[in-house]
């Protein structure tokens, strides 16, 4: 309906509510030694899945800290994954695969980003290249996961 209202032809082959697939090559979960009750963990996962803003994720993070204490690394990764998913959706990114060696970002067929910004980015950053019509490859080794997440957030900010 949104496409039709904007005078665009809808892509009937794409899923209606697809969310970006994020792989940071690190565990992203609420460990059972952090939140021992399996039903409580499932409830928290559902609550996180329903977060539609960065503020909602921040509120859930505060709730987790208040109830269970300092977030373990796997829980931090889980929350960062959802933050990246929200930012990715704004640009039409459907997949992020970020390892210590390189990062690959895949856009939907009609991304919500200005192609000129992508071209400028490729021209300015020698380690960012097109790897197909809808794919960026960033050959920048970043071993620290927190630094990789921050790099992705900065990259998305540049493309917005």
List the helices and strands and how they pair.
Layout: H1 2-5, E1 21-23, H2 38-49, H3 54-68, H4 73-91, E2 93-98, E3 103-107, H5 115-124, E4 128-130, E5 135-138, H6 145-159
Parallel strand pairs: 1-2
Antiparallel strand pairs: 2-3, 3-5, 4-5
At CATH level 2, the architecture is: Alpha-Beta Complex
> What is the CATH domain class?
Alpha Beta
What is the first-to-last residue Cα distance? 24 Å
Structure class: alpha+beta
Cα-based radius of gyration, to the nearest Å: 17 Å
How many structural domains? 1
Considering the protein shown, what is the CATH homologous superfamily?
Transcription-repair-coupling factor, D7 domain
Succession of helices and strands = HEHHHEEHEEH
Question: Could you walk me through the main structural features you see in this protein, from its secondary elements to its overall organization?
Answer:
- The protein has 160 residues and is an alpha+beta fold.
- The protein has one domain (18-159): Aspartate Aminotransferase, domain 1 (Alpha-Beta Complex), CATH 3.90.1150.
- The protein is built from 6 helices and 5 strands.
- The protein has helices at 2-5, 38-49, 54-68, 73-91, 115-124, 145-159; strands spanning 21-23, 93-98, 103-107, 128-130, 135-138.
- It has a 5-stranded mixed beta sheet with strand order 1-2-3-5-4.
- Helix 4 (73-91) packs parallel to helix 6.
- It is globular.
Task: Give keywords.
160 residues, alpha+beta, Aspartate Aminotransferase, domain 1, five-stranded mixed beta sheet, 5 strands, 47% helix
């Amino acid at each position: 309906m949104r496409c039709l209202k904007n005078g665009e032809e809808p892509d009937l082959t794409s899923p209606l509510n697809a969310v970006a697939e994020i792989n940071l090559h690190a565990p992203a979960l609420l460990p059972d030694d952090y939140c021992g009750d399996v039903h409580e963990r499932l409830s928290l996962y559902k609550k996180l899945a329903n977060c539609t803003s960065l503020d909602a994720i921040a509120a859930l993070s505060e709730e987790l800290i208040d109830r269970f204490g300092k977030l373990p690394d796997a829980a931090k990764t889980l929350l960062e994954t959802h933050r990246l998913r929200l930012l990715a959706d704004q640009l039409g990114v459907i997949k992020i695969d970020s390892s210590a060696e390189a990062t690959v970002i895949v856009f939907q067929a009609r991304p919500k980003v200005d192609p000129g910004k992508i071209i400028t980015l490729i021209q300015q950053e020698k380690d960012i290249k097109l790897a197909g019509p809808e794919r960026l490859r960033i050959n920048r080794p970043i071993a620290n996961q927190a630094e990789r997440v921050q790099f992705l957030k900065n990259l998305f900010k540049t493309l917005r």
